Q: What sequence folds into this?
């Protein structure tokens, strides 16, 4: 069996070599894939007694698949609307086992162990039915006096055929988990055939053991023996080995039988409470699982190391930014153009950049113009610039002067930049520099020219990249100028029916709080634009935290922790990675600059200028948020407090006039100059060395300043990426002639999170700033060296090139690696709306894959009787995101009906007489009927199963109460009420006071009493407050309903109290039973899909239904109740293909997933299209 990975989309397969789905083989089964062979570890002592004489066995049933209907399966060409869907996806072929085939095996376990009195045997494994290695959810095995010392499963496990499963046995004592079996590694089982029996021995297993058929049978099931590859034995040899065992074994066997008789009697009398819930044990309670998981983690984290990143040779990296990282110069003599890399740009090419190891192309705008030139670039200029930049692998996008002014100077610098730095919009428009400019800004805001320009520039660059990139390329987008770029590029690829390239977006400025971000009129569009990538990166967790809050509050998205230290946001069926990684500096470049004689000479001159004084340096942009006035106030107070320092200290400040936000720049410059004049007049003209320049300091000028200075002071109020403190530490650290420097760093700076040796300050606290300055000036050399030692190794070994490779390695792990799905699902999934952790680690599950339409279609076309169970909200109609502030109704389902395409698909499906289609919902009967009641051949279930209505052409004769809907359109359906009586009075008396208190306490919450439920809705509350209140309310309710026959169902934004016997699983089972009665047989195709926690009961009911047909058939058969009698009743009914599917990639009891409602619609459209032409059901009179 070949390994395969989860597809990234609906996959299209041609053909693949597979194992036989059933039947007797020659005993030579293909070797197990190495990916499913657990690592070996030292053998531990067995803490449970066992007999080592018996061999291990299993068997498949010999059954062929269902006969073909003779109809031709439609292709993508026949269904044009599927062409893009299939062509943009990868195949899942290459493996013998695939959950997309919908085939299952009934697996019985029979394990031998000589248990002690009071002990029971349990089994837990990687699949849902085995409890995901959670002892609290493990399967209980039973025994009888005749079977002991063998313990068997009560009913068969339903496992996807051909898919490897890992499992282990455990001992419980008195119903409480005691210990796992001590074996070298987890057991591995690959189900084969219709029915399979595994007979094995507790505590005896290693990775060299294989299941080999012995030729024996238990009724219709073959017996397999687990053997080691290097020393195969036959059943005869195995029996002979039993005769050669120690003679004391006979006595031990007799004692075991006596103990077994007593134990079995107690089991039969239900005196051993096997179902008593033990304290929740860790999933990693297995020693072998711990060892194996450690090895997996070690190998995984090695892949995150920059040195381990090896790009594909045929892939290209596109670095996309607004400003191309080049400097263009036009010769005054002949008008020719020249270009060079801007060494101060983060993404420019350097000696050790990513461009040295993979093909790299830079794409961005060219907005060059001379200060005296008010004309745009000519076509000849553009052609010459394009040719020059092509030699540097740069692709220019030319935009005219007005468009650049509205995009960069307008929307980016005048709106996004201050707001992303948490400047409130009221401050921007009403509390700034002069009234005339306020009027101008209000006019710009109203006419929308800035926003239109922002969209236009993003679209122009996206279109240019879309022309160049291919599916296996990577596009890395930089900064807030291009927030819409990812969505534009993704839409372009979708419109061209091709898969988009992998995308990264990295933000180099802070992200605002949700309160400030709310003031952006197009904030939602900006968020959605960014989330169309695979990775969103930030330099600081504070910035990422604000981004996640915005996603939660304005898009209703949830996020989880991922293995590897990243976060993940669920967006449109994808998990977008949120990574926090601060970029480093180009250490090689700085070393070269340090060795430059001109730089050393500039440093010497600055020292001579301020001879005998301590130099405190500052390099900032001239703007309010840089906090330069706060530095000045601190110096003024310091000189007042410590006048002896007046002649020993000088403050060297260099301010850059960027000319982008002139109002802020001019105001700040005037304020700073007034403070400089005031301080120098009071404390001497040489205490401050302040200069302004229109161009930022070059790398040479900065390094010269670092060499000459003793202290660097950064007092920014809000700041994104600032690498100057890292440069200062490195320059002072590697220069042998320099004394270790001290960095006084604002806690609002992003680099504060990576410089542990800095003296951190709050710049608003002037007194604290003065004290920190005094500490830095009087700091001993020993402390200086200690602080430098904290930061220098990190700065030295984390250059910018490593940062690039590290982010790309995370991208590769999530998108290219065959284990990429594991990276998402192998976490302990935390649903922020449900508020509780699903202890369901599905990363190790090979039985959870993306739905493959071709294989579902193949099974559909081969089947004769089909049943569809479809959830409503979130499955066939979009569900409102409940984490948002504004919701539309109680059920979080939009007021719209399903789309016309969805309606057509449902109608086509129901027109086929071989199909039984039900929509199973928790919404009220009135709402469900208004939406879907006009589809006469569609079955409906409302209120989580309390009421249900079959297709109008089907009459169900039962004794249940029925109600007739009024004669108004669209239908006069017969509705049936679930047959159970329930007295709500004691429940309401118990819960009503608590619910009303929480309604009063939680603004926006609603209490609803329905016929079959009591619900507390917190969808319209503040998301975080509502979640906290829901958790508290659930705990309080569980206390008062402990002795009442009700359950609490936790949905997204809803707490619902329902009777114990009322859930979607119960009605699903009833539908299947009644359908089998109507059709005189079970269906051979069953498809169930849903998106919520309430749908999990449907999935479980389907597995139980599959398993219990075998169990039910044993009743009435002659026999003594042994395990062999149970197997003899095996029912080979026609249920060949079972598909359970969840909407959204998340932990689920289902074995398949689709990404979103759109893919559900496409799937049902495809099946409905295949149904066209089939005989229709007779119309109802």
A:
């Amino acid at each position: 069996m070949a390994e395969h990975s989860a597809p990234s989309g609906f996959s299209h397969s041609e053909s693949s070599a597979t194992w036989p789905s059933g039947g007797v083989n020659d005993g030579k089964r293909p070797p197990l894939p190495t990916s499913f062979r657990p690592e070996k570890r030292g053998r531990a002592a067995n803490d449970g007694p066992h007999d080592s004489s018996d061999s291990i066995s299993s068997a498949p049933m010999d059954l062929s698949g269902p006969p073909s209907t003779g109809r031709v399966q439609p292709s993508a060409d026949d269904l044009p609307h599927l062409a893009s869907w299939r062509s943009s996806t990868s195949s899942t072929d290459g493996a013998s086992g695939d959950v997309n085939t919908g085939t299952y095996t009934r697996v019985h376990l029979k394990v031998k162990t000589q248990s002690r009195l009071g002990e029971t045997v349990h089994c837990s494994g990687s699949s849902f039915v085995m409890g995901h290695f959670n002892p609290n959810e493990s399967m209980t095995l039973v025994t009888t006096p005749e079977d002991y010392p063998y313990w068997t499963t009560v009913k068969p496990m339903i496992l996807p055929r051909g898919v490897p499963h890992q499992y282990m046995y455990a001992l419980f004592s008195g119903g409480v988990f005691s210990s796992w079996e001590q074996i070298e590694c987890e057991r591995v089982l690959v189900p084969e055939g219709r029915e399979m029996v595994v007979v094995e021995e507790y505590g005896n297993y290693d990775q060299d053991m294989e299941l080999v058929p012995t030729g024996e049978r238990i009724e219709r099931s073959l017996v397999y023996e687990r053997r080691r590859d290097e020393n195969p034995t036959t059943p005869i040899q195995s029996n002979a080995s039993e005769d050669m065992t120690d003679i004391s074994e006979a006595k031990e066997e007799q004692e075991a039988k006596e103990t077994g008789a007593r134990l079995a009697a107690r089991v039969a009398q239900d005196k051993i409470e096997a179902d008593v819930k033990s304290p929740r044990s860790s999933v990693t309670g297995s020693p072998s699982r711990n060892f194996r998981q450690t090895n997996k983690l070690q190998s995984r984290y090695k892949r995150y190391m920059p040195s381990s990143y090896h790009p594909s040779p045929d892939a290209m990296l596109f670095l996309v930014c607004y400003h191309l990282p080049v400097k263009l110069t036009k010769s005054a003599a002949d008008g020719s153009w020249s270009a060079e890399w801007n060494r101060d740009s983060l993404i420019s090419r350097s000696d050790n950049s990513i461009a040295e190891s993979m093909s790299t192309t830079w794409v961005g705008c060219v907005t060059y113009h001379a200060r005296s030139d008010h004309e745009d670039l000519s076509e000849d200029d553009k052609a010459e610039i394009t040719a020059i930049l092509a030699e540097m692998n740069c692709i220019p996008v030319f935009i005219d002067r007005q468009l650049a002014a509205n995009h960069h100077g307008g929307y980016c610098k005048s709106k996004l930049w201050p707001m992303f730095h948490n400047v409130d919009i009221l401050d921007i428009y009403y509390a700034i520099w002069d009234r005339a400019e306020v009027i101008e800004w209000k006019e710009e805001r109203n006419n929308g020219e800035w926003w239109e320009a922002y969209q236009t520039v993003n679209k122009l660059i996206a279109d240019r990249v879309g022309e160049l990139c291919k599916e296996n390329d990577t596009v890395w987008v930089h900064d807030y100028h291009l927030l819409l770029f990812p969505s534009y590029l993704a839409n372009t690829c979708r419109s061209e029916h091709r898969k988009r390239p992998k995308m990264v977006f990295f933000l180099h400025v802070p992200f605002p709080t949700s309160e400030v971000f709310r003031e952006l009129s197009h904030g939602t569009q900006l968020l959605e634009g960014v989330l169309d990538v695979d990775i969103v990166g930030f330099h600081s967790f504070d910035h990422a935290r604000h981004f996640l809050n915005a996603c939660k509050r304005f898009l209703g998205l949830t996020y989880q922790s991922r293995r590897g230290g990243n976060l993940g946001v669920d967006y449109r069926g994808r998990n977008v990675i949120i990574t926090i990684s601060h970029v480093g500096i180009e250490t090689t470049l700085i070393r070269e600059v340090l060795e430059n004689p001109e730089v050393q000479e500039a440093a010497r001159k600055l020292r001579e200028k301020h001879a005998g004084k301590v130099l405190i340096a500052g390099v900032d942009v001239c703007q309010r948020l840089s906090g330069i006035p706060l530095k000045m106030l601190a110096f003024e107070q310091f000189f007042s407090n410590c006048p002896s320092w007046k002649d020993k200290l000088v403050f060297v400040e260099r301010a850059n006039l960027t000319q982008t936000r002139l109002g802020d720049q001019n105001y700040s410059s005037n304020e700073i100059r007034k403070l400089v004049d005031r301080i120098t007049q009071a404390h001497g003209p040489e205490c401050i060395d302040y200069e302004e320049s229109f161009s930022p300091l070059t790398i040479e000028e900065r390094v010269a300043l670092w060499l000459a200075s003793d202290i660097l002071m950064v007092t920014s109020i809000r700041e994104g990426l600032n690498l100057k403190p890292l440069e200062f530490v490195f320059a002072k650290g590697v220069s042998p002639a320099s004394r270790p420097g001290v960095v006084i760093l604002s806690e609002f700076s992003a680099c504060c999170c990576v410089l542990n040796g800095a003296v951190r300050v709050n710049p608003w606290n002037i007194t604290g700033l003065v004290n920190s300055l005094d500490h830095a000036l009087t700091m001993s050399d020993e402390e200086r060296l200690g602080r430098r030692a904290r930061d220098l190794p990190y700065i030295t070994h984390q250059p910018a090139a490593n940062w690039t490779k590290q982010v790309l390695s995370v991208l590769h792990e999530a998108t290219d690696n065959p284990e990429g799905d594991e990276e998402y699902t192998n976490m302990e999934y935390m649903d922020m709306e449900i508020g509780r952790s699903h202890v369901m680690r599905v990363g190790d599950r090979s039985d959870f894959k993306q739905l493959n339409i071709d294989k579902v279609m193949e099974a559909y076309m081969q089947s004769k009787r089909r049943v569809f169970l479809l959830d409503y909200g979130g499955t066939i109609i979009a569900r409102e995101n409940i984490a948002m502030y504004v919701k539309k109704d109680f059920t979080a389902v939009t007021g719209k009906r399903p789309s016309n395409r969805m309606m057509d698909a449902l109608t086509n499906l129901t027109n086929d007489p071989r199909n039984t289609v039900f929509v199973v919902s928790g919404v009220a009967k009135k709402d469900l009927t208004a939406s879907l009641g006009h589809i006469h051949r569609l079955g409906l279930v409302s209120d989580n199963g309390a009421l249900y209505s079959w297709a109008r052409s089907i009459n169900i004769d039962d004794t249940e109460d029925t109600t007739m809907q009024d004669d108004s359109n669209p239908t006069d359906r017969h509705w049936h009420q679930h047959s159970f009586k329930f007295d709500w009075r004691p429940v309401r008396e118990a819960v009503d006071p608590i619910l009303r208190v929480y309604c009063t306490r939680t603004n926006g919450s609603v209490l609803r009493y329905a016929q079959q439920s009591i619900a507390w809705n917190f969808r319209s509350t503040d998301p975080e407050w509502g979640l906290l209140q829901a958790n508290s309310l659930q705990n309080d309710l569980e206390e008062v309903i402990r002795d009442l026959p009700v359950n609490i169902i936790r949905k997204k934004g809803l707490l619902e109290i329902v009777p114990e016997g009322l859930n979607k699983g119960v009605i699903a089972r009833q539908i299947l039973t009644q359908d089998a009665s109507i059709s005189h047989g079970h269906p051979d195709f069953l498809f169930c899909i849903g998106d919520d926690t309430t749908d999990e009961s449907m999935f479980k009911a389907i597995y139980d239904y599959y398993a219990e047909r075998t169990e039910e058939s044993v009743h009435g058969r002659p026999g003594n109740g042994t395990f062999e009698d149970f197997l003899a009743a095996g029912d080979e009914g026609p249920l060949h293909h079972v598909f359970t599917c969840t909407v959204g990639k998340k932990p689920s009891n289902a074995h398949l997933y689709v990404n979103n409602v759109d893919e559900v619609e496409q799937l049902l459209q495809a099946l409905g299209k295949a149904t066209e032409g089939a005989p229709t059901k007779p119309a109802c009179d």
Remarks:
- The first strand starts at residue 104 and ends at 112.
